[in-house]
């Protein structure tokens, strides 16, 4: 049995703690805030690939669906354009999307979008093993930029939709990889889902505690404590070291940047945010408009209330995304917070720090590490780390 310190009790920390406690390790979660959940407290979030969460639940106890309702978001989205036109996109129905697009933009628009989804299918086949299975993947994304793919679309409103898959991550479509077509592909093929994320947090934390994990809140961690190139614990703000044989760091890796011992400056170099091009400079304030409930935690979202409305501006510039919940208030969120580090270069989205570091016993999980941000990928980072550490 190893003593494992998990830093952060967001989704990555909770999934890591549960999987590792279930493997029989002595797990302590150190969270700087007063409660678990991290970014999941921001309200209803649609997500793809629920299979990743399903896998964790199945391996550690009662199946996911026995613990909470995972419901399809239907329709998947409402796209609103500056000229007043609108399209309501059904969930997980390529044929339904084709019909809706033909109806809104004229015959043939659906076929144009089908070509995007087919591109996403090809990209996913290349990326899937690297995204879902590799501890230190640095995949080379399929060639070209998202703008190249968009340029092949005759319908300008579809070009705007496709490019929004880059701008919502703070990336420039002119440099973002063409392989971002995996996002519409995953949405339309495997569906968009939602759940009461507050309940998800409670179940994960409760199950991890049942398996013996200890939670320490209001406990900000300064950094990992090292002995040469081996981790020996974490340093707390009191100066005390909490001893550990392994550390799973799920706080933003940028927090490691102040470390002067060399190892983490390399992490920083790899995660440093590239300068955005001039026309993307205002992306931080405009990319995401999210409605969150006043109470802090989401009421169990119903499928229609979680349908995001995506509004495309008349000129160039990022789309805004709004979730319509009756009790909500508008909150602007920078892409750094919403989706991990923004990326200006073609490869940056696919080049996050590996889950296994060069420091023995130090692992990175969460939105800032491989394979990236968002509920399924963050949960997958925890699965990769847990599998790497292995059973006690
Ligand atoms: C508004 C918003 C909308 C989103 N929409 C979607 C969506 O529609 N679909 C989707 O799939 N994803 C969405 N996401 C992204 C998704 O929520 C995140 O990628 C995911 O929750 C990140 O989990 P995490 O554990 O990596 O990080 P976090 O949730 O940020 O957890 C990190 C934890 O570490 C703690 N911490 C930080 N520093 C320290 C320290 N020094 N010591 C101890 N603890 C520390 C923090 O308090 C936090 O609890 C959205 C995010 C936001 C904010």
UniProtKB/TrEMBL annotation:
Gene3D superfamilies named among the record's database cross-references: FAD/NAD(P)-binding domain
InterPro entries in the cross-refs: FAD-dep_OxRdtase, FAD/NAD-bd_sf
Biased composition (Low complexity): 298-309
Annotated spans, Disordered: 298-325
Sorted UniProt keywords: Signal
Span of the signal peptide: 1-21
Pfam families attached to this UniProt entry: DAO
Residues of the FAD dependent oxidoreductase domain: 3-297
Superkingdom, taxonomy of origin: Bacteria
PANTHER family (UniProt xref): PHYTOENE DESATURASE
Name of the molecule in the record: Phytoene dehydrogenase-related protein
Species whose genome carries this gene: Jiangella alkaliphila
